[in-house]
Amino acid sequence: LLKQTKLIIWDEAPMAHRYTFEALERTLRDVMSSFSNSKTIFGGKVIVFGGDFRQILPVVPRGYRSDIVHATINSSKIWDHYKVLTLTQNMRLKKNGNDQEIANFSKWLLKIGEGRLSEPNDGYADVDIPKELLILDYDDPIPAIVQSTYPNLVDQYKCPNYLQARAILASTIEVVEQINTYVLSLIPGDAQDFYSCDSIDRADVNDCEIFETLTPEFLNSLKTSGLPNHKIS
């Protein structure tokens, strides 16, 4: 499949450690060397990396700023082989050209990314979020954000366009569960539960005594980012 591939697209590339790109480059060069005598970078494949360096960079546990800079893609030895293309038009704004609110919000985000929103600083600065983006009057944050994001939910929850047009983002899976539980309590009818089927791979390579302690009950209890819970309602 890799030999037949003409184009590989990697989105959010600045978030990944530079070693991942170097590993991909060596792998493709090795795979393609058995197909031809070419030793070109990435095995001669066209790779499109997309992303914004103003957003989240690679996470280096307990690392300093210098460690993060060293881990970014543009610190890699293969960066000189990249051709950088810069997007100059905000296509979302172009689609919603008459929406001044979106235009102002986009300009505000751009100023944050470029470090132009606050006084000159060394990389650490306080950012005041505009009041129109905050929910100020509430007793419980969960009902408040649900009401703000999903107004008239009880009347609209069966409408696909209504649900596709909005979303609530949370930093932890615990908060996601709280929001989901509250939303389910608002929707009429009985909730339907769906369960995962968790088991250990019994292949010979995984023949280890420690796997015997990993029961299905233990696997069902695991909750981590990137994976759905054992029970989803």
TrEMBL record:
Keywords: ATP-binding, DNA damage, DNA recombination, DNA repair, Helicase, Hydrolase, Nucleotide-binding. The keyword Cell division does not apply. InterPro entries: DNA_helicase_pif1-like_DEAD (IPR010285), P-loop_NTPase (IPR027417). GO terms for molecular function: 5'-3' DNA helicase activity; ATP binding; ATP hydrolysis activity. Residues 1-122 form the DNA helicase Pif1-like DEAD-box helicase domain. Belongs to the helicase family. This is ATP-dependent DNA helicase. It comes from Trifolium pratense (Red clover). The lineage of its organism: Eukaryota, Viridiplantae, Streptophyta, Embryophyta, Tracheophyta.
